[in-house]
Amino acid sequence: MGQVENERLLEQTGAVKEMIQTCIQCGTCTASCPNNEFMDITPRRMWRLLLTDHVEALFSSKSFIMCSSCYYCTLRCPRGLELTQAMSLLKQAASRLKLKQFKRSSLFYDAFLDSVQKHGRVKEMEFMTHYFISLKNPVIPFGYASLGLKLLAKGKIRPEFGSGAKGKLAGLFKKVAELEA
C-alpha cells in the first residue's frame, strides 16, 4: 500500500485506536473468540497492529470480518473495552474505503440490509438473488445450488419474492442514515 492509502486507513481507524488505547494485550479476547480458529491473525494481534499504526497489515487480514458479534470478548475483557464495537467499526471502515478484498462481504451486507429494509425481515431468495447479481459473475451461484436445494427441501428457506411488511422499517433506516451523516 502506498503512503496515501496508509493515511486513509489511519484516518478511518482513529476512533477504534482510541477505543482500545488501554488494551493490555492479555489475550482474553482471543481466548474468548469462538471464531478465532478461522481468523488469519488473532484479535489480540489485530489490536496490537492497530495500536502501533500497522493498519495496512490489519486491513490485509480478513479476521475482523469473521467477528460474529457474540460479545464474548467484550464481556470478558478485564479492561472493559468495547471490542465488539471496535470490530464493527473496522468493518464499517473497510466498507467505506471500498477495499477490494472486502468487496464480497460488503455486497453481502448491502443485499441483506436491502431485504430487511424492504420487508421487515430477510426474504432469502430475493436477498441471495440480489447478492449474486451484484457479484457480476454468473458462475458463482452454481457453487451454492446444492446447499440451496437442501435448505429448500428442509423448509429452511422459502421460494418467495416480495410481499411482507413493506416499508415498516423505512423510518428506522432513515433515522440511522441521519445519525450516521
What do you see in this structure?
The protein is mostly helical and 181 residues long. It has two domains: 95 residues, Alpha-helical ferredoxin (Fumarate Reductase Iron-sulfur Protein, Chain B, domain 2, Orthogonal Bundle); 78 residues, no CATH class. Helices cover 59% and strands 0% of the residues. α1 packs antiparallel against α6 and α7 packs antiparallel against α8. The protein is globular, with a radius of gyration of 19 Å. The two termini are 28 Å apart. The model has no long low-confidence stretch (mean pLDDT 87).
Oligomer: single chain
The sequence of SSEs as H and E is HHHHHHHHHH
Structural class: mainly alpha
Described by strand count, sense and barrel closure, the largest sheet is: none
Provide a brief overview of the structure.
The protein has 181 residues and is mainly α. 59% of the residues lie in helices and 0% in strands.
Secondary-structure blueprint:
Layout: H1 3-19, H2 28-32, H3 43-51, H4 55-60, H5 72-76, H6 83-97, H7 103-119, H8 124-135, H9 145-153, H10 170-180
Characteristic key phrases:
single chain; mainly alpha; Fumarate Reductase Iron-sulfur Protein, Chain B, domain 2; 2 domains; 10 helices; 59% helix; 0% strand
